[in-house]
Every structure is written in structure tokens, then in C-alpha cells.
Write a structure and sequence with these properties.
Layout lengths: L2 E2 L10 H9 L11 H14 L3 E5 L2 H12 L5 E5 L3 H5 L3 H6 L3 E4 L9 H7 L11 E7 L12 H13 L3 E5 L3 H8 L3 H4 L5 E5 L10 E5 L1 H13 L8 H13 L4 H16 L4 E2 L9 E6 L9 H13 L2 E2 L1 E4 L2 E5 L8 H18 L2
Parallel strand pairs: 1-11, 3-4, 3-5, 5-6, 6-7
Antiparallel strand pairs: 2-8, 7-8, 9-10, 10-13, 12-13
Length: 356
């Protein structure tokens, strides 16, 4: 059996989800007549404290819909240098919406410096630059190791943006992980922001789907954008049924993933040649580097060799580039799998250096 820590997207639907999918009441969602999707959207809005919600096929589409809905063609969007939107979403806002990105460096904890954000905000008074329409935040932050933005950080950034007439969207693919780590309701964490996307198909273990939430008017316009992108589905209540189970049954267990990830992180911290800040691991993602005898980070060729050996020893993990290696705990990974994963990493390290 392979232990798969590449991502929480590899989770499989629970038995309760499969049963709910089988029994789902369905209709045509393009006509807003699918009762299961309507129930999921109502539940998502309720849990996040927003007025309305929209079911979309993926998180990437949800983020693209939000950016295209908030920003007009030619208006700028502020993103973090390490954000998922900037690195992994095929330049959606600029490619589809003609919106340039203004990139602000992420701090190590995934946050953005208020002064740098403010410096990047432009209005229409200067005809030479694109006026800023949107600030995008990420919580939890993937490339920064599953770090969490606090209520205070979210509020400060949102207040700044709103002061300048700029909307705020949150890529909250794992926002329930963030709220779990902070011990607060999601609605408290995202209260000030204008829109939020969260995924059902990661830690919440549903097979497909994400939700975009915001005001009634925003979701009305977002629904049109979803149609433009081909995201309008028909009898998709069979998917929404699993999402309902995800929100009702799978949120509280996220704390187990966090604990397993911390155990893995502290285990790795004891290994020579592993560089990791175990104390910063608070959710279900950790990032580490492998150092050589000269305390230099291994290059990508050596990292790929290490990943090959790890797989040979029964463990799947992934590279993020730049020498970064990511491991993600999730539903299906239990506490007893962590020592086995650590053993596989130890053996893969020995093989890597033996073949250097």
C-alpha cells in the first residue's frame, strides 16, 4: 500500500457521501432547479455568514469567476507572490479578463505587508496605470506551508482595501482548515471580505466541487460569469449531495489531519539533512528542504531522485520547485501511517545520498 501525501485532493468520498449521491434529488441547475445544489448553496452561505453561494466545478474556476466578476477588463488585481492564483491557475484573470496582476511579496506566514499593498493600489487619476479593482488573499496558504492568516490580519488587509474602494476576494480552498486551527467559525474569519471560494474536494473529502460565496448581487453576476466559462451544469445534484455531507460531517475531523501533520513535521525535524520549521506547521500542509553535506538545498534533479526513492519505499510526496518538498495529510491518513511515512523518508534519504 502506498501512503499518498501528495495532496488532500486524493481523498476518496466517504460511504455516507456515496449513499447521498445515490439518493440525491436532482434537477437542472442552469434553471436553478436542482434541489440538492440549492440546499448546498444555502448551507455554504449559512456556514460562511454570506448572503448567497454558487456551486462551481473547481476552485480554480471559482477564483476565476470571482476575479472576472469583481474586476472589469483592464483593471488590476493585487496577488501574493506565492499565491495559488499567481502560480497555478494559468493566468486566469489576465488571460480571460484582461486584468493585469500587481504582485506583492508574501511574508513567510503567507500574509501581505500593509504598506506594500497600499503602494500597489492605483486609482483612475493616473492615466498611465491600471486602476486597482481587487485584492486577493489566500487562507490557508499553500506554498507557505499551510499557514493561517488570523482574523486581525484578514481584517487589517480588508479595511485597507475597502478604504481605497478595492474589493477583497479570498482563495479559501482550505478555509475550514484555517478556522479549525484558529478555533473559530469560518463566518468570523471571513466576515469582512467581499467574496470567498472554498473547496469541497480537498480536506472535506467530497469528490468534486467548490463554492463561491458573497452578496446576493455578487453571486447574481457570478452566475453569469460561470455560464460564460462553461461551468453551468445540469443534474449535478449528485455531486452537491456529497458536498452537503462534507459540510455537515467532515469539518470537525480536520483537527486530526492537523495533528498528524505536526507529528510528521516534528519527526522530520529530527532527521539530519532535513530543513523544516516544525513549529510553524499548524494545519495539514508541511514544506521541507533537503540539504547536502555543505548545507546547500538539493537541486531539482536530486529532489526528483529522492521522490523516486520515496515512492519505491511506499510513500508519495511532491515537489513545489526551488528545492521545496510538500507533504499533505488528509482523510484516509491515520496516525499509524506517520511512523511508516517517516521510515520511508529516512530510507529515501539514504538512497539519495548513496547515489549522489
Amino acid at each position: 500500500m502506498l501512503i499518498d501525501l501528495r495532496s488532500d485532493t486524493v481523498t476518496l468520498p466517504t460511504a455516507a457521501m456515496r449513499e447521498a449521491m445515490y439518493r440525491a434529488e436532482v434537477g437542472d441547475d442552469v434553471y436553478a432547479e436542482d434541489p440538492s445544489i440549492n440546499r448546498l448553496q444555502e448551507l455554504a452561505a449559512e456556514r460562511t455568514g454570506k448572503e448567497a453561494a454558487l456551486f462551481v466545478p473547481s476552485g480554480t474556476m471559482g477564483n476565476a469567476i470571482a476575479m472576472l466578476t469583481h474586476a472589469k477588463r483592464g483593471q488590476a488585481i493585487i496577488v501574493g507572490s506565492e499565491s495559488h492564483i499567481y502560480h497555478y491557475e494559468a493566468g486566469g484573470a489576465s488571460t480571460l479578463g484582461g486584468s493585469p496582476s500587481w504582485v506583492v511579496p508574501n511574508n513567510a506566514d503567507g500574509s501581505l505587508d500593509l504598506a506594500l499593498v497600499e503602494a500597489g493600489i492605483a486609482d483612475e487619476s493616473d492615466e498611465h496605470v491600471a486602476a486597482t479593482a481587487l485584492l486577493c488573499l489566500e487562507n490557508t496558504h499553500n506554498r507557505c506551508g499551510g499557514t493561517v492568516l488570523s482574523v486581525e490580519q484578514m481584517s487589517a488587509l480588508t479595511d485597507l482595501a475597502h478604504h481605497h474602494g478595492v474589493a477583497v476576494h479570498v482563495d479559501g480552498a482550505r478555509i475550514f482548515n484555517a478556522a479549525t486551527a484558529l478555533g473559530i467559525p469560518v463566518s468570523t474569519l471571513v466576515h469582512p471580505v467581499d467574496s470567498l471560494m472554498f473547496c469541497l474536494s480537498k480536506g472535506l473529502s467530497a469528490p468534486v466541487g467548490s463554492l463561491l460565496v458573497g452578496s446576493q448581487e455578487f453571486i447574481r453576476r457570478a452566475r453569469r460569469t460561470r455560464k460564460l466559462l462553461g461551468g453551468g451544469m445540469r443534474q449535478a445534484g449528485i455531486l452537491a449531495a456529497a458536498g452537503i455531507v462534507a459540510l455537515e460531517q467532515m469539518v470537525e475531523r480536520l483537527a486530526e489531519d492537523h495533528e498528524n501533520c505536526k507529528q510528521l513535521a516534528y519527526g522530520l525535524a529530527d532527521f539530519p539533512f532535513i530543513e523544516i520549521d516544525a513549529a510553524s506547521v499548524v494545519t495539514n500542509i508541511l514544506v521541507f528542504r533537503i540539504l547536502d553535506a555543505h548545507q546547500q538545498t538539493l537541486g531539482e534533479t536530486e529532489v526528483q531522485r529522492f521522490l523516486h526513492f520515496a515512492q519505491a519505499h511506499g510513500l508519495l510526496i511532491g515537489s513545489m520547485g526551488g528545492g521545496k518538498i510538500r507533504a499533505v495529510t488528509h482523510y484516509g491518513i491515520e496516525a499509524q501511517h506517520i511512523p511508516t511515512a517517516l521510515t520511508a523518508i529516512k530510507r529515501a534519504l539514504a538512497d539519495t545520498f548513496a547515489h549522489a
